[in-house]
Amino acid sequence: MAADSGEPGTLRPGGRTARVRAAVLQAAGDVLAEGGLAALDLADVARRAEVGRTTVYRRWGTPAGLVADLLADMAEQSLPRTETGTLLGDLEANARLVQRTLADPRQGPLFKAVLAAAAFDPRTAAALHRFYEIRVGEWAPCVEQAVERGELPPGTDAREVVRAVSAPLYYRLLTTGLPLDRASADRAARSAAAAARAGAFVTPES
Amino acid sequence: MAADSGEPGTLRPGGRTARVRAAVLQAAGDVLAEGGLAALDLADVARRAEVGRTTVYRRWGTPAGLVADLLADMAEQSLPRTETGTLLGDLEANARLVQRTLADPRQGPLFKAVLAAAAFDPRTAAALHRFYEIRVGEWAPCVEQAVERGELPPGTDAREVVRAVSAPLYYRLLTTGLPLDRASADRAARSAAAAARAGAFVTPES
Fold first, then answer.
1. PANTHER family under this entry (chains A, B) (predicted)?
2. Domains, chain B, ranges and CATH?
């Protein structure tokens, strides 16, 4: 009966579970963006998310478990690719999305935090690899279509081209204090497209 | 008198200071490679380096101070660039050096650890940026010479080309579980060279 009453807090279990997860992952992301993995405490996350501690400990267990689920959620939330009709247009759309994400005051530190967390935790590393696998796979068809249109040589490794767009932006974020501006995004797209056209990503015959 | 006696432990102070620093930084690097920043404890480093605790605390103060000095030392120890006479040859030499370093069982985790440590510590980040500034500056003349030889268009941003060689290797290390093999190094060099030849790194007129 209570499930049908329409009162607040009486939504179906799936809905409540999903809302609890969303609140906990939002809080976990906030903490990671503010202070990195070292600051991630399950009791603090429960308090911020206004969720019972027991629920958080039972469901996520450890900070590493929470980071792994956050990465799974980020992969689910990942924006679909843009289709512009040209290789350069598609790669620019991708580069600008990565650039805006990494330059964002919450998202940039959050990505730094999960990359750092993955450095010495195999479970987090596996979740991180899975996140990038999904993201790269989402954008690979842009490159495959460019091969079909004759813009790129046959045998071009689509996933490597997509990685080549993101790589300079991550490298800039992690190893320099230089701004992650639109110009750096456009240069990343332009150089990946030029290298792909020149056949630099053609897989050698095996 | 003791300073001239030639007995072990009686070397000039400069020599002793340098040996102490070398031993401490070696131990700090070992600890970072094994367990990351979270594992870096000054007392443990002193024990491993067989150096007095007080010396380590007085000279380095904190784990962040130790990481900053380790990065300064890595910049000093950085190998000089190779000159092969062609752009592709030089970039390949650079890419293979980066690949061997990141694939090394001690150096790879050490680089992951310092990148992770820099994510939430401004002092470590500054030392890390300085390390990459020096390293990129060391290899930039390869690109400048290629411009002078007419291999690359005038106005090519030499430092961006050098960064483009390293970027895919770091991205591969951090975001995938794929092997950092010779093929990935050669692809990184080949694609940076192709993009540079196509003018992707020419700085727009300002």
1. HTH-TYPE TRANSCRIPTIONAL REGULATOR RUTR, TETR-FAMILY TRANSCRIPTIONAL REGULATOR
2. 15-70 (1.10.10.60), 78-197 (1.10.357.10)
